[in-house]
Amino acid sequence: MLRCLLWVLAAAVQPKALLIADNLCLRQQLVVLQRRKPRPRLEDVDRRFWILACRWVSGWQTSLLVVRPETVLRWHRQGWRTYWRRRSRRTTGRPGRRPIAVELRTLIRRLTTENRLWGQRRIQAELARLGFKVSARTVAKYMQRTHHRGPSTTWRSFLRQNRSEIWACDFFCVRTITFRTLYVFFVIHHASRQVVHVHVTPNPTASWAAQQMVECCAWDRKPPRFLVHDRDSCYGATFNRRVGNIGIAQVRTPFRSPRANAIAERWVRSVRTECLDHVFIFNQHHLQKVLAEYVGYFNDWRPHRSLGQRAPCAPGAGASHRSQAREIIAIPVLGGLHHVYQQAA
User: What is the pTM of this model?
Assistant: First the structure.
């Protein structure tokens, strides 16, 4: 009762025009709620009414009960965009630049074919001399260049043809239990999926990454022909010089294209989901030890579907025999996180 009394006193003080507008807003919502439908829905006429009300009536938010004020403002923005879109189409007819005549397109292609040394500016000047006013970008759009070289090799074909001579490297971050960030550098072989090298550092630099590549190509391992990596700043001038001295050609992937280095990215997912997401890392030495144990398990025991369910460093499929008398034993890896199964001697 006290609240109703305060409303009556406030209404007595307000101007008459404001009371009329408030009454009109409430009556419009009653009309919406009295419609014979399972659920009253607002139509375009109702939306236009509230769009005008939010522009002309002060305090319209207090009279709005069916929807929220944010909804009315969203209707207003949508109507504003629709209005200017229709007006732009009415004035210009068709969005974008007007297409040039077919004869002019044919003339541009003819000038390009007959004058192979002419560029877009030269052809634009020649067309201006003939009485055709056209921009250089339009000329470049309709120029017809002939390429004598054959089609370039696709990325998938390049990987398939040279996978036995390709290594891939990458960095990924690991957080310790004390919120310290460590960087893991690894090198993986494309054909066999073998992790050739993995090392940890708190400060990755170009010289440190180059030294890791030198350690990968030791006297007992032949260096690859190609090295695939992204455009990280860790691969600086020192890295390029030392890797080039070894005889490795670097292949940089495009910007923001992790699929171009999919094998390395897939190993990062494996080491996270199968190892690092289940282990608390204390420091750099602990992370190096955990990764070394996981890499040994990954190379010697973990099967891969792309290799016919065979591990990267496992021997080829030979004459296997089944013995019922032997016992299967389990060898724990990473403290029992994984197990290696063998036949007992």
Answer: 0.56
